[in-house]
Amino acid sequence: MENILLKNYQTLYNTAPFSKISNKDFLPAFKKAIENAKIEIDGIVNTPEHPTFENTIVALEFSGEQLDRISSIFFNLNSAETNDEIQKIAQDVSPLLSEFGNDITLNEALFKRVKSVYDSKDTLNLTTEQQTLLDKKYKSFSRNGANLPEDKKDKLREIDKKLSQLKLKFGENVLAETNKFEMLIMNEADLSGLPEGTIEAAKQLAESKEKEGWLFTLDYPSYIPFVTYADNRELRKKITIAAGKKGFHNDDLDNQNIVLQIATLRHERANLLGYKTHAHFVLEERMAKTPEKVKNFLNELLVKAKPAAEKEFKNLQDFAKELDGIEPFEKWDGTYYSEKLKQKLFSLDDEQLKPYFKLENVINGAFTVANKLFDLHFEEIHTIDKYHEDVLTYKVANSNNEFIAIFYADFFPRAGKRNGAWMTSYKPQYVKNGQQERPHISIVCNFTKPTKSKPSLLTFNEVTTLFHEFGHALHGMLANTTYPSLSGTSVYWDFVELPSQVMENWCYEKDALELFARHYETGEVIPMDLVEKIKESATFLQGMQTLRQISFGLLDMSWHGGETPEEIISVKEFENNAFAGTQLFPDVAENCMSTSFSHIFQGGYSSGYYSYKWAEVLDADAFEYFKESGIFNKDIATKFKDHVLSQGGTEDPMVLYKRFRGQEPKPEALLKRAGLI
Q: For 1, what's the count of Cα atoms within 13 Å in the CB-facing half-sphere?
């Protein structure tokens, strides 16, 4: 039977034919698509004509389209709807892709053609976007070993193959650890303090596994309410330690050795390419440019945040001691007493807010905000395939009813889905042969599922998460570039969080909340005193929160900015040294963050975790601009769309930002918003 992934399948809007794909299609499809892509590369190399921008750079940009499409479908499923079979295929496929990537970047004849075009770029009269593409293509070779002698190229291939497998294994272990832990509660008294929705969900989960009692797991919608509200300190301790022990058990799911291998191989790879460390290699292609600049940025923030964080921590400690005689104050007390203190100071807690944030209303709220700002219309459609019945599918159009994008939204946890929230795409936007190809964008989250008696009601934190991922989605949907590798979120990593983080700001604004924050039973709009409390509480414990993010950024830089990772013996000891200047809570001997720090050891954030804080500076500064003229001001929104959202990676991000804002971003806006100045 013909493999659907290799057919020119005719689906509505050219969407992925999920229902027709079988797992056994993937490996043969990858092998054949790699073969086809190699033929395309050979065609470029063997062109008798002199290398030109069109016959070399553009031809290379659009080669391997079929392979890219298969990869996006497969790896998105491996994150959102995986199983043992898919994970096994991923282990088989990753080295093939790594090998193929090296076949391109280490292809001397191909590099010779690219270099020929690059060397004559001043005479070519290229547009800014074409110049950026040429620069990016040249660097994709030079930064991946094209200038190396043959023996070093072989070494590089070996390292890349090993890294691709190690990163996959790291993620599989974290997912297996998350799925493995279950805390079954039989005594109803142990549920004291928990919201009824959480209790009902735990009961339903236990029933689904044919168990008595109430079942809690490390999935966020189960874990977060437990550590926030459960009065039983011992059980909070048990689940907190379990969450912090992922990959740190000295068993077959242990990630310590994998972490050490990844850090060492990345360092070795950077050295091979002539860079001092992995961080030097990565940051060359970021707004920050150097590890020194990142460390200075984080340490400057640390100076501002640490006194506030220490003061907040002392207040929290004193509060817990006064309230319940808690001493010493431990990690499993932090979230619980933070929530208690927040309720005391602001008479505000998530349970009070949740009825106003029914998932469907929040989704429609995000759509309404996008409509008011960018003239987008979202229509739910049931005529395209989805990979799981929970997934919602939308057609996105503009005010002229022109097709803009397909949007997939996948909101609830399940065994085959990794924790957290992310945006991704199944097809990028680009222009080919004069034809405008529109993107297929997806956001994936892990929110509380509806129960028998209640719809899915979001915590305020989940509301901001949805808006955050939706901001990334807008960056993908509104893309308007020629080349796929410069489209949408294909930008510097320390710029990519600007569209997502800026969208979170609307969640705190009365004018926006009135559009969607309605009580799920009465339809009543969220009372304005609650909106005021949300705004007041936004700076609550902001010093501690900032310190936490800085600590993750510094840990990342320690792993990737040091010169001798091969000499590290103990992951735990190394991590403790990295955390020394930012630690507030006593250390938990059984816990280690690095062994489940997926952002930097599995995702794309190695040497890039600082970018969350970096982008916060941009987003606070950008939103200040909106607020000056009204948060739904069309002129400012159009500027943001035209100069940031639609431009992708076609130009240097600071140039794009200044075009939108008229000036460079100032950190004062962030420090002011965080209440740190």
A: 8
SS3 442: strand
Domain count, the chain: 2
The answer to whether the beta carbons of residues 53 and 130 sit under 8 Å apart is yes
Are 121 and 48 within one domain? Answer: yes
pTM: 0.87
Start-to-end Cα distance in the chain:
66
- Domain CATH number, residue 137: 1.20.1050.40
Cβ(558)–Cβ(574) below 8 Å? yes
pLDDT digits (tens, 9 = 90+) for 502-552: 999 999 999 999 999 999 999 999 998 998 898 888 899 999 999 999 999
pLDDT for 364 equals 98
Shared domain for 187 and 120, answered yes or no, is no
Q: Known catalytic residue: 469? A: yes
Distance CA 610, CA 345 (A): 31
Evaluate whether residue 134 is within a structural domain: yes
Nearest Cα to Cα of residue 235 among 202, 205, 270: 202
Give 53's DSSP letter. I
Domain boundary, last residue among 189, 211, 244:
244
DSSP bridge pairs for 409: 392, 443
Average pLDDT over every residue of 162-183: 96
Give CA separation, 475 vs 69, 280, 442, 472, 644, in Å. 20, 28, 12, 5, 8
Per the listing, tokens 């590890």 go with: 291
Give the Cβ contact number of residue 403 at 10 Å.
Answer: 12
Catalytic residue among 469, 509, 575, 624: 469
141 and 200 share one domain: no
Structural domain boundaries enclosing 97: 4-147
